[in-house]
Each structure stands twice: as structure tokens, then as C-alpha cells.
Amino acid sequence: MAVLVRHAMTESPHTAKPDMTAADAAGLMKQFDIGVVPVVEDGRLVGLVTDRDVVLRVVASRRDPDEVKLSDILTRSPATVTPDTQLSEARDLMAEHRVRRLPVLKGEDLVGILSLGDVALATASKRAVGDTLEDISESQSTTDISGGPDRGTPGRVQERKAS
């Protein structure tokens, strides 16, 4: 039996409105110990605001979190899934779009959020989740190791272990 998104997702996520501020979103993240707040207007998903969005688009730019509206910093989700999507397909979408979270929609309604952590807990294949995380996290700086030291255990450590 295939594992579906509905079996792993976080249901009824806490949401915010586009006219709320970055400070409001940060407060929700702290209060509910979450890293993403879906932004919803008239019952429809507009985008997501992540802890990373707040840091990079507000704090690092030295903007006032009480002045910045969520509509100005949200990320439009490149992909969504339904509760009946197979978990393996959702995991593949995460890797393809290099995202760690997917909104779960039933029709036009946001019914949940699926995170990479949810996928990890729901699947027995730690390797598949690890591969997905590697795909999501990969960047030029992490793939270009030609300028660094040789990979592996240094000879002096191997020698110490042998003695």
C-alpha cells in the first residue's frame, strides 16, 4: 500500500494574511515552533513565508519587521500536492523544485503542509530522504570541492588508530 501525503502532513497549519507584518509571522513561528507560515487571502493560498524569508528579506536588509508586509516577502510555492498524492511523488517534487515544504491543497483550500521532516518520519527509506535533502541543499559552493584538501581520513589519524 502506497503512503499518501495525508498520512504524513501537518493538518490545519497556522496561517497569516498578506497585510500582516514580518514581526507577526516571526511571532507565530516562535509561538507554535514552526518554520513556515502559509499566507492566505480569501481562503486561497497566496504563498509561504519561512524563517529564512524573514532573515534574508527583512533582518539582513535591516528593514523594520513591524513595517514589512508579508505580501512583500512571501515566496510563491513552485508546487503543491493534494492529500491523495503519493508521498514518493511529493518527495520527488521537493527535490525537483529544491524546497523543504509543500502546501497541501484540497481544491483551492489549504488543508496542510508537508515538510521534509514529515516525509522522513513517514517513510522507512532514510536513504531516499537523505538523497532528497542532498538534492535540495546542493549548490555550487557545496559541489565544488576541488579547491579543498583531499577527502577522507588523514593519514595521521589512520596511523594513530593502527597503533
User: Largest sheet, order of strands side by side?
Assistant: 1-5-4
User: Ends: how far apart?
Assistant: 52 Å
- Helical stretch count? 8
Overall shape: globular
Total count of strands = 5
> Would you tell me the structural class of the helices and strands?
alpha+beta
**Unreliable spans:** none
The radius of gyration computed from the alpha-carbon positions, rounded to a whole number of angstroms, is 19 Å
Task: Report the β-strand fraction as a percent range.
Answer: 15-25%
The sequence of SSEs as H and E is EHEEHHHEEHHHH
Largest sheet properties: 3 strands, antiparallel
- Rounded average pLDDT: 83
Q: How would you describe the overall organization of this protein?
A:
With 163 residues, the chain is of the alpha+beta class. The chain is built from 8 helices and 5 strands. The strands form 2 sheets. Strands 1-5-4 form a 3-stranded antiparallel β-sheet. Helix 4 packs parallel to helix 6. It starts with 9 loop residues before the first strand and ends with a helix.
